[in-house]
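Recap from last week: sequence in, structure out.
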Amino acid sequence: MTDIFHFEAFELDTEKLQLRKDGELRKTEPQVFDLLHLLVRNRDRVVTKDEINREIWGGRIVSDAVVNSRIRTLRQSVDDDGRSQRLIKTIHKRGFRFIGDVWSDSENGAGKPDTSAAATAAGGNGAIGDGPTGSMGASVGVYAASGAAGLADGAQHGGLWKGRLAGALAGAAFATIILGLIWWWTVNPT
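Predicted structure tokens:
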């Protein structure tokens, strides 16, 4: 089934494999088109880098630099950039999320914004935060939604949690070795 996704002045035509702005065709590389389609289809959640590798590169593992290069090209195609992140939000150490208002002809009728429960739960307008550009609280909402996994890997705190855990484990290991040596010397006095 063909679908045309609309956001801002853009149309993403999945049958003709075209991206248009105000009716004019935007040249888009196949991987960039597929990446935009993946993000728009999954706009209600963060798309992880693993998913991007699986969907765009067929499971072949590519470097973060390659993924970031495609994201940069995609942002240029939709008049976005990494600083404003008006449409494509980077979720540090997680992935990416399309945060613009999207509607499609097949989902809710032509020309109607996405007002589904999933879209409105994410921020009232289908975006993270409280407006089309998001807010400073956007990251907090995504991390809260991602659950305890965020705390487990310490990504929100730049690895601080991991560092503290590693320090505590190293201290415990050192104490265990010292106590073992003391016990050994008391059991074997000679």
